[in-house]
Amino acid sequence: MANLVGEKGQIVIEKPLREALGVQPGFLTVQTLVKDHVEIRFYPPEHDRSVRGALKKYATRVLSTDELREARDKAWEEAATKDWGRDGKES
């Protein structure tokens, strides 16, 4: 699969390669010179889909803002008062 470089330095990534890598319009490319060739890495754009409610089926009950604040404060208090050894394990 050989292609000519365009007048503005553009190249074509062949369709079978794009499909194999899952590359789609809007992906970011990072190009790196490695000795005598170029490596191209493709990164998808950040999604714009909401993840709100994704864990809803695992929730056993809904907490109020005050209950959440109390639970957070209690967890911080417990973590701050634990005796942690140098290896990061509780003693």
Please report which band the strand proportion falls in: under 5%, 5-15%, 15-25%, 25-35%, 35-45% or over 45%. Answer: 15-25%
SSE string, helices as H and strands as E: HEEH
Shape call: elongated
- Count every helix, treating DSSP H or I runs of 4 or more residues as helices: 2
What's the total number of strands? 2
CA(first)-CA(last) distance: 62 Å
The Cα radius of gyration reads 25 Å
Largest sheet features: 2 strands, antiparallel
Helix content: 25-40%
How would you classify the helix and strand content by structural class? alpha+beta
Mean pLDDT, rounded to whole units?
Answer: 87
Low-pLDDT segments:
none
Main β-sheet, spatial strand arrangement: 1-2
Tell me what the structure shows.
This protein is elongated. It has about 90 residues and is α+β, with helices and mostly antiparallel strands. The relative contact order is 0.08. β1 and β2 form a beta hairpin. It has helices at about 15-20, 65-80; strands at about 30-35, 35-45. Helices cover about 25% and strands about 15% of the residues. A two-stranded antiparallel ribbon has the order 1-2.
The gist of it:
With 91 residues, this protein is of the alpha+beta class.
For the structure shown, list the relevant keywords.
2 helices, alpha+beta, 26% helix, 91 residues, two-stranded antiparallel ribbon
Write the layout of secondary structure elements.
Blueprint: H1 15-21, E1 28-34, E2 37-43, H2 65-81
Antiparallel strand pairs: 1-2
